[in-house]
Amino acid sequence: MKFASLLTASATICVITGAGAFALPQQPVMTLELAKTLIAGCEAKAQKEGWKMNIAVVDAGANLVAFERMDGAYLGSRDIALRKAEAAAKFPFPTRALQERVFGKDLKGGPVPGLAFAPGVIAFPGGLPVKTASGVQVGAIGASGGTSDQDETCAQAGIDAAKDALK
Questions:
Q1: Is residue 85 part of a domain?
Q2: Is residue 148 packed enough to be buried (19+ CB in 10 Å), middle (13-18) or exposed (0-12)?
Q3: Are the C-beta atoms of residues 154 and 143 closer than 8 Å to each other?
Q4: Cα distance between residue 73 and residue 76, in whole Å
Q5: What is each CA distance from 131 to 11, 17, 84, 90, 115, in whole angstroms?
Q6: Is residue 157 included in any domain, yes or no?
Q7: CATH number for position 125
């Protein structure tokens, strides 16, 4: 009996002290606080310019963290803002780059037109990946309600507003 108890205790100690050897590396994540900062920056830019935006922030897995629809923003743009954020989370570049791959820089045909039909891909500007200063992608922001350029400018304003939090 005593030998079995000693063996169990020894095994337990080995498991407890050896757990650190199997610890997963820590990585920055999209928090609600960061998402709110991104939205606030985008909203401030939109208000300054007189734009009415839908703004979505997702985590690195393209899961919705926060969403805001400004007063008067198009109801149909809600889904577009979310899809832009999701696409930018799934790919490590702005949705403008998807547009260029699908439609070309001149919008007369790109090298991968079929990409426009892939589920979860939205091929026009307004979705930007959100990365730390060291380049770790923590999520994405999508804006919709203005022109594509206005949407992208608004999303970038959100990222700019969160610059300190992304260090």
A1: yes
A2: middle
A3: yes
A4: 9
A5: 42, 34, 16, 13, 24
A6: yes
A7: 3.30.450.150
CB-CB contact of 130 with 62 (8 Å)? no
The pair of three-digit structure tokens given for residue 15, joined into one six-digit string = 């498991």
Rounded Cα distance, 76 and 64, in Å:
17
Residue 91, helix vs strand vs coil: coil
pLDDT of the chain, 167 residues: tens digit per residue: 565 554 455 555 555 555 556 788 888 999 999 999 999 999 999 999 999 999 999 999 999 999 999 999 999 999 999 999 999 999 989 999 999 999 999 989 999 999 989 888 899 999 999 999 999 999 999 999 999 999 999 999 999 999 999 99
Residue at token pair 């200063």:
133
Q: Which domain does 156 fall in, by range?
A: 28-166
Residue with tokens 């979860």: 120
- For residue 120 the two structure tokens come to 């979860």
In-domain check, residue 112: yes
Q: How far apart are CA 68 and CA 71, in angstroms?
A: 9
Is residue 13, in this structure, part of any structural domain at all? no
